[in-house]
Amino acid sequence: MMFDKEFIQKLQDIQKRYQDELENILSRVPGTGAERKTFSGLTVKPVYTPKDIEKTNFFDDISFPGQYPYTRGVFPAGYLSRGLHIRQVTGFGTAEETNQRWKFLLSQGANALSVVPDDGSGNRADSDSEKVVGLVGKGGVALDTLFDYETLLDGIDMTKYPVHLISTNAYALACYLAVAEKRGIAFGELRGGMSNWIRPETECLDIIEYCARHVPLFNAGYLDMRNVREGGCTAVQEIAFGVATAMAGCDRLISRGLLIDDFLHRITWFVNSGPEFFEEVAKFRAVRRVWARIFRERYHSTNPLSLMCRMHCQTYAPTLTIQQPFNNLIRSTIYALAALMGGVQSLHVNSFDEALALPTEFSASLSVRTQQIIDLETDITKVIDPLAGSYYVEWLTNKLEEEAIRLIDNIQEMGGAFQAWNWMCGEIRYAAMKNQQEYDAGERLLVGVNTLIDEADIQMEALKVLRQHAHFEAIHEYDPSFVDKQIKRLNKVRQERDPDKLKKAEAALIETMKSKQNMMPALMDAVKSGITRGEFAKIKADVFQQPGEGPYVCSPPHVLA
Amino acid sequence: MERVFRVLLSRDDWYHQRGYWVIANALKNAGMEVVLGGIQTPAEIARTASNEDVDLIGYRIMQAAPDMVIKALFREMKVNGIESLPVVVGGIISDKEEKIIKELGVKVVFRSFDKLETIQKQVRTIAIESFNR
């Protein structure tokens, strides 16, 4: 910031005296000797002053909301004009159960939707396959055919609610578009997006390319850094690995003949928000600044929309505990506060029971209420970027940006993110191990786990009492009858479809994929002809000679010794 | 010389793998050889365990129904003639599910924030017991 020499000199003099006093006091407080490090390894001091952000230039580095480099948010009016999207991940049983849960969440005031399919790797085998034993409708919803997507979206206004498909699979998009087409909805009206991780495979690039040309408001590219963070990485890595992955994807798309501004504005972020409150707020600000700077300076993007980094956030889950489970409500609320102070567009707050099972209606509604209470009852969302100007937060923002850029440059030297993939995975695992060791050693505290342990656990007792009420689902339980119900739905489609029409559509799809044309139009025809997710997965595996990462494909075992 | 135990670690889904890798490293640090099976079906786990001649199977279950995959695993282990191998499980497992899979024959179930040291010791003890039998 612009401080004159005299000011800085005076500050340094006062600080010298203060520092002596501080050290004197702290020397008598046990346990304050060691310097504190954030989860990302940044060393943090007990106090910050204007000197720490001496070089920060308000106009270049902070500016106004909706202005380059978008540190303060992508929209000029923040939440005042664009309310938060309350979007809870949903998916269990068949499409019928998930559709009911969606309607329940909307009745509670959720205003955006998200669906997770049931095999964790998304749509790679049909529900009657040996390959998905135990998985059908368990950790997500079973979606085998277009019929399932029709049921899923039944009674849902697709032009009103943006739907997010948690899938990297072109099959999910084809079904979503086919439902819209059947309802006479123009693709230009469809918002929402999908978890199409930026990766070098044809399928990923086909989805982005197709949407760039035909589904202009759909967020077709995705940086799933939230789950990478769950995997153990630091805030710096979350920024750097995300931006570097986007850069690698952009290089591939540009080599297909697209221009950067044809698609960049439809690549969105999935980010995490965890226990380090201020570091998280600074991270959201730093992500936006790094994104805008890299793509303007290195990719010469000129469309402001492309430079506006938009984010969906889900709160951090590795700290959710089985012990004293209601404490998780408080944890997730604090994480949600950081996300809203950081200006994310869309949010999922984890439910208190997520270390035990999938959320129930009860726990999911509390997640929705958490967001509504912050938004409606407090002043948190009424002032845009409220922590800007805090010496600490501005310093953290600068520091995260600086470290992230250094890491991005390292990755570029390794040949880009796709080349450096294994190295990044190793870094993430190293960070996860270190984090676990810190908890085990009690260097990082977790209430109910390594401090304030309650053997009697009154909270767990309360939950057990709730469970005894027959008409109230206190903890989600998997119903194995989902399997038969889903297989019946699948067989109905198999019996009713026209085999000749399907055969032709499949042949056309194979031909398109072999000739390296965009697979989406042919896939949509195949979907409408009744092709199942498992049949599509098989075609894909045959054409691309890639086993893909399904639960049924084992990477060759290697020994860690 | 002390025997180096071989442990197969497999998991049931693609996305979430933090615990899987942390445990793999912890067991390695405890002097064991870890065979990384990755994402596998119960049939694949049993085949790999047999081919790799491991002393113990560690199965991360988070997405799947624990009772269903454990039943399938024990069936497949029998097919491969390795039904005596001990199986330990970790993941998101409810009390009720834990009880069921232990009755089916799972030796121990680890859940979030069990200390690495405890896991290392318990896995070693189970492997030794099984080996001596």
Overview of this structure, please?
- The complex is a heterodimer of chains A (561) and B (133).
- By secondary structure, chain A is α/β, with parallel strands linked by helices.
- Chain A has helices spanning 5-27, 58-62, 95-107, 146-152, 170-182, 202-214, 225-230, 235-255, 260-263, 277-297, 304-307, 327-341, 361-377, 391-413, 421-440, 458-467, 481-496, 499-514, 520-528, 533-544; strands at residues 36-37, 43-44, 85-86, 89-90, 113-115, 163-165, 193-194, 221-224, 267-273, 311-315, 346-348, 558-560.
- Chain A has a 5-stranded parallel sheet with strand order 3-11-10-9-8.
- In chain A, helix 4 (146-152) links the parallel strand 5 (113-115) and strand 6 (163-165).
- In chain A, helix 3 (95-107) runs parallel beside helix 4 (146-152), helix 8 (235-255) runs parallel beside helix 10 (277-297) and helix 18 runs antiparallel to helix 19.
- Mean pLDDT of chain A is 93; it is low at 548-558.
- Chain B has 133 residues and is an alpha/beta fold.
- Chain B has one domain: Rossmann fold.
- Chain B has 5 helices and 5 strands; from the N terminus they run βαβαβαβαβα.
- A 5-stranded parallel sheet of chain B has the order 2-1-3-4-5, with helices on both faces.
- In chain B, helix 4 (95-104) links the parallel strand 4 and strand 5 (108-110).
- In chain B, helix 2 (42-51) packs across helix 3 and helix 3 (66-79) runs parallel beside helix 4.
- At the A-B interface, helix 15 and strand 12 of A face helix 1, strand 2, helix 2 and helix 3 of B.
- Strand 12 of chain A pairs antiparallel with strand 2 of chain B.
Brief synopsis:
The complex is a heterodimer of chains A (561) and B (133). Chain A has 561 residues and is an alpha/beta fold.
